[in-house]
Amino acid sequence: MSACCFSQNLHKETLFGVHLITVELKPGATMNQFRDFFVKEVLPDYEKHWKGLKGYLVRSVRGPSKDRFAIVWMFDTERIRDSYFNSDGTPNELEKDALEKVKPVEQKLNKFGTYTIQYMDDWVVQ
């Protein structure tokens, strides 16, 4: 039975960042359409262009952010995440190149709406 079950763990040194998002829907679009496209198209495209990255769209069910979405980005390690930034925290060419590659899927998402991000924190599993 255990061979049929899938489980995912937070491994030591995994870095995860939480980004609270605000969605602005286009007329006629629904939040479900936006969510489904984001999960099925946007996140996989980001994962394809950033080595060691996994993304999750999550919805708050209580507290001050109730019914809002956030993105949880997980990198295998902080070192991998840092490889996309200069020492001063600005995006390097690797990051800029990846951002350029996801522009087409982000433009397709505009059919449903746009989103803004409020960066929260990065955390490293100890």
Question: How would you explain this protein's 3D organization?
Answer:
The chain is α+β, with helices and mostly antiparallel strands and 126 residues long. It has one domain (31-119). It has helices spanning 31-49, 78-82, 93-101, 103-109; strands at 15-25, 53-59, 69-75, 113-124. The chain has a four-stranded antiparallel β-sheet with strand order 2-3-1-4.
Key traits:
single chain, 126 residues, alpha+beta, four-stranded antiparallel β-sheet, globular
| H/I helix tally | 4
Could you tell me the radius of gyration in angstroms? 16 Å
Alpha carbon gap, first and last residue:
30 Å
Strand content: 25-35%
| Biggest β-sheet: strands ordered side by side in the sheet | 2-3-1-4
- Given the helix and strand composition, which structural class is it? alpha+beta
Helix content: 25-40%
Count of DSSP strands: 4
User: The biggest beta sheet, please?
Assistant: 4 strands, antiparallel
The H-and-E topology, N to C, reads as: EHEEHHHE
Mean pLDDT across every amino acid position: 93
Structural domains: how many:
1
- What general outline do the C-alpha atoms trace? globular
Unreliable residue stretches = none
